[in-house]
């Protein structure tokens, strides 16, 4: 579960602060799949990094479950939430299986040894992300899209109650986009995890998610896809002289 109160996000300190967005209070329940959408530059990636603790908020409070994020010890944070970025930093000399196994480090003993249960969790994550055939390959020898799935598999192996993802379907073909979204849906509904992911694949999100967190330059709104479509929020997401949203077909189109 994520609870956000009076949140301001951005960069800098003191008089050098640059505020990107003021976030309306919201909460994401366990078992929910939420898509984070909005125009480029509105602060979606910054919000995810702030929710993960990678960036400090300029103001406000974030709670993960019953814990204040600012007060959580690093070990507890690593066992509570995971973050998957579009471009994951990784050693190009690690194999896929070795990279996925990094997700188990918060649970390893003091020498970093993994037990049989850890190995089973790693293999389950590899199978779930359709990476079995690649697990022996080095990360330097796979495509960007394959590496994206490897990063997601590491988050699965980390087995946290909250999973945050920044554009997890980037670089993926339609088949693997559908695979990833089905996986995220199963993680939320069947395993009661709180999953929030930023995406530009809005039409796919409308067919998949429980709710949408819509960010604009002036506001945020959390609602179901049906409410956002009915209220016209999606048609106002982009300049209407260029892009039109049809709530009946649930599709965007370019105006001529």
Would you give an account of this structure?
- A hairpin with a 4-residue loop joins strand 10 and strand 11.
- A six-stranded mixed beta sheet has the order 7-8-9-4-10-11, sandwiched between helices. Strands 1, 2, 3, 5 and 6 form a five-stranded antiparallel beta sheet that branches. The protein has a two-stranded antiparallel ribbon with strand order 12-13.
- The chain has 256 residues and is α/β, with parallel strands linked by helices.
- Helix 4 crosses helix 5.
- The chain contains eight helices and 13 strands.
Short account of what is shown:
The chain is α/β, with parallel strands linked by helices and 256 residues long.
Strand % is 15-25%
- What is the residue-averaged pLDDT? 89
Distance between the termini: 43 Å
- Calculate Rg over CA atoms: 19 Å
Residue stretches low in confidence (pLDDT < 50, at least 5 long) are none
- The helix/strand series, from N terminus to C terminus, equals EEEEHEEHEHHHEHEHEEHEE
Overall 3D geometry? globular
Class of secondary structure makeup: alpha/beta
**Could you describe the largest sheet, including whether it forms a barrel?**
6 strands, mixed
Number of strands: 13
Can you list the strand order of the major beta sheet? Answer: 7-8-9-4-10-11
The percentage helix is 25-40%
Number of helices: 8
